[in-house]
Design goal:
mainly alpha
């Protein structure tokens, strides 16, 4: 706990937050600038906007929400979420009788 409250650590954290905040401001400006440019089709415009938004969301989640330093907890939560998502989608498809694998393995209508 003491290593996080030293003056050097505090200055480093402030410097990081200032850099990330500046990058978010630049990203917002880039988003506004890109909205006035036609990249050939709506699909390209949407792709550019999503790339910029993805970078900005990574910065917010990674640094401001401290997800980069909490890797074990994040991976455990992600694995649990993925497991339940697959299980619930599998049960849904099985109940709808639209997925042949489940009807062959577990029987069905």
């Amino acid at each position: 706990m003491a290593e996080h409250s030293t003056p050097e650590a505090i200055k480093k954290a402030i410097r990081t937050y200032m850099f990330v905040g500046s990058a978010l401001i630049v990203g917002t400006g880039l988003t506004v600038w890109a909205s006035y440019i036609h990249f050939g089709s709506n699909a390209w415009n949407i792709t550019v906007a999503l790339i910029i938004a993805s970078v900005k969301s990574f910065l917010v989640a990674g640094y401001f929400m401290h997800l980069l330093s909490e890797k074990k907890a994040i991976y455990a939560t992600l694995a649990t979420t993925a497991f339940f998502f697959v299980a619930l989608m599998g049960l849904t498809l099985w109940s709808m009788n639209d997925f042949p694998f489940f009807t062959q393995v577990f029987g069905g209508k």
